[in-house]
Amino acid sequence: MTYIDGYIIPVARTNRQAYLEAARIAAPVFKEHGALKVVETWGDDVPNGKTTDFYMAVKCTEDENVVFSWIVWPDKAARDAGMAKAMADPRMQPGASPMPFDAKRMIFGGFEVLLEA
To answer: Domain spans of the chain?
Structure first.
């Protein structure tokens, strides 16, 4: 069954295009190393919560928006191997492409798929 890497990232609204450009560099790297699909989304209808929400989760400021992204892998073994190769790829090294977001506030994790409908 497929395996998912998920990410939530705060991105300055003024960096939307820069983020898209960075994503356009990273997506092919993941796909070359085994990912089936890379999805990048820009928050459009993200409600503010009272207890928690996407904005609070990554400590968004007024000038930032939430990016919700995921990478679909064939399985966890393919993800582990592919992610290691992608992270070693020269295009993903620090300085190769500027990260237009605060990586310290990024939330990420790997997820086993329970249901695909």
So the answer is: 8-110
Pick the closest to residue 32 from 71, 2, 1, 6 (CA basis): 71
Give the span between the Cα atoms of 40 and 60, in whole angstroms: 18
Tens-digit pLDDT profile for residues 73-116: 999 999 999 999 999 998 887 776 677 888 899 999 999 999 98
Q: What is the pTM for the complete model shown?
A: 0.91
8-110: CATH number? 3.30.70.100
pLDDT > 90: percent of the chain: 86
Nearest to 66 by CA among 20, 25, 6, 106: 106
**Under 8 Å between Cβ of 67 and 102:** no
3-state secondary structure (DSSP) of residue 32: helix
